[in-house]
Design goal:
23% of the residues lie in helices and 28% in strands. The chain is α+β, with helices and mostly antiparallel strands. The longest helix is centred in the C-terminal third of the chain and has 16 residues, at 113-128. 25% of the residues are buried. Bound molecules: coenzyme A. It comes from Streptomyces sparsogenes DSM 40356.
Length: 179
């Protein structure tokens, strides 16, 4: 995965009904570590990273690159949204396309926050790179993620076996750019 490409970054913080999408800041570091060290968050993502390794290696301001949004609820980070370009991928349909990822703290699940935040990030994306499709890979066993992908308008391209699990590859077709 690489960065999105030539987009103006960071955008002005994006407000939704309940949330704020913004660039990561130094004060988010502890939450990034919690998110990446959480076994629950990584149940379907190949397992968490060791906390001591994250403490050592995480930059002072984590994950600061175009397409990396912190999702903020009432002034505190609850999750991250990632829009990255898949440079190489084991599935030809994905190579070169922009990929959506999402990670939320378990206490923030079940409130519709991920759906609200991802919809806003995709709106932003449609504005900066109009006409570009977005792909998403998730394990079929990840029921919450599968439901979210469907809600966001992703439809199945294929299923494949990788990382010892069945994977679902979805595509969100580009909305034709308006002039
Ligand atoms: C995938 C993930 C983001 C989904 O989170 P989520 O909270 O289930 O997703 P949504 O934002 O769509 O919320 C839907 C839930 O909120 C509920 N909800 C409550 N209030 C709501 C509201 N105001 N609006 C919408 N939904 C609401 C819905 O009923 C639904 O609950 P249910 O699943 O118990 O029926 C989360 O489980 C996660 O971070 N997982 C770990 C990381 C991961 O696996 N990522 C995928 C790979 S990229």
């Amino acid at each position: 995965m690489t960065e999105l490409g030539p987009v103006a970054w960071p955008p002005a913080p994006i407000r939704t009904q309940r949330l704020l999408l913004r660039e990561p800041e130094a004060r988010d570091r502890a939450t990034f570590i919690r998110l990446l060290a959480s076994p629950e968050v990584h149940t379907y993502l190949g397992g968490p990273r060791p906390r001591d390794e994250l403490e050592r290696e995480m930059p002072g301001v984590p994950a600061r690159w175009p397409g990396s949004f912190v999702v903020d609820l009432d002034g505190a980070m609850i999750g991250q949204i990632l829009l990255r370009r898949a440079t190489e991928h084991r599935r030809p349909a994905v190579a070169g396309k922009v990929d959506l990822g999402y990670l939320f703290l378990p206490r923030a699940w079940g409130h519709g926050y991920a759906a609200e935040a991802c919809a806003a990030a995709l709106d932003w994306f449609d504005g900066v790179l109009p006409g570009e499709p977005v792909v998403l890979t998730t394990q079929t066993a990840n029921v919450r993620s599968m439901r979210l992908a469907a809600k966001l308008g992703f439809t199945e391209i294929e299923r494949f076996q990788a990382w010892d699990a069945e994977q679902w590859l979805g595509l969100r077709s580009p909305i034709p750019p308006s002039d």
